[in-house]
Amino acid sequence: MKIRLLAVGTKMPAWVEEGVDTYRKRLPRDFSLEIEEIPLGQRGKNANVAKARGQEAERIRQKLKGDEYLVALEVKGKAWSTQVLAQEADQWRMLGKDIVLLVGGPDGLDPSLSAKADKAWSLSPLTLPHPLVRIMLAEQLYRAWTLLVGHPYHR
Ligand SMILES: C[S@@+](CC[C@H](N)C(=O)[O-])C[C@H]1O[C@@H](n2cnc3c(N)ncnc32)[C@H](O)[C@@H]1O
To answer: Is residue 33 a known part of a binding site?
Structure first.
């Protein structure tokens, strides 16, 4: 299974890459996590949020083949325990599709993408900054995998 994280926002500081890679590198090939950055939509002086979010959504759509299983990361999505995440990931493995995790930009995900997603996953009721979302995702995916294979890390 390939998990693709499509994240709006580029040029993360080195500590973010380091944090993500700490966990990403531990994942096996059949549970791999790839990160693809999506450039921010244009936000001028008279910022048109809907337009910028629409541009970001279009850039995301261009990266999709159309047969992926889409999970939108949303503050108001459903909270999953690590056990539930592991169950979800176990089901993902049966689907035979790429899993795409969608992380929005400063104004969140475009509603068209939220509507298209198969699931909406909330990491916390707090609005988290983009760098922490990436690191938490990588760590929780690693933790879920260790749970599935019975590795002691998950305790
Ligand atoms: C800085 S947040 C943008 C917040 C934006 N105001 C909103 O309401 O979505 C950027 C992205 O990080 C992700 N994100 C932030 N906090 C999250 C959380 N608690 N759970 C899941 N995803 C989160 C979402 O994908 C969000 O679109």
So the answer is: no
The ipTM, to two decimals, is 0.95
Full residue range of the structural domain in which residue 93 is found: 2-154
What residue owns the CA closest to ligand 1's atom 11?
104
pLDDT band at 142 (very low <50, low <70, confident <90, very high): very high
Split into its structural domains, the chain has a count of 1
Atom of ligand 1 nearest to the CA of 104: 27
| Interval between CA 72 and ligand 1 midpoint (Å) | 10
The residue-averaged pLDDT of 121-146 equals 98
- Print burial letters for 48-72: b (CB count within 10 Å at least 16), e (below 16): eeeebbebbbebbeeebeeebbbbb
Contacts within 8 Å (CB) and 24+ apart, 88-96 = 88/119, 88/144, 89/31, 89/141, 89/144, 89/145, 89/148, 90/148, 92/1, 92/3, 93/1, 93/30, 93/31, 95/69
* Residue 10: pLDDT over 80: yes
Task: Determine which residue's CA is closest to atom 5 belonging to ligand 1.
Answer: 108
| CATH label of the domain that carries residue 85 | 3.40.1280.10
Cβ(9) – ligand 1 distance below 6 Å:
no
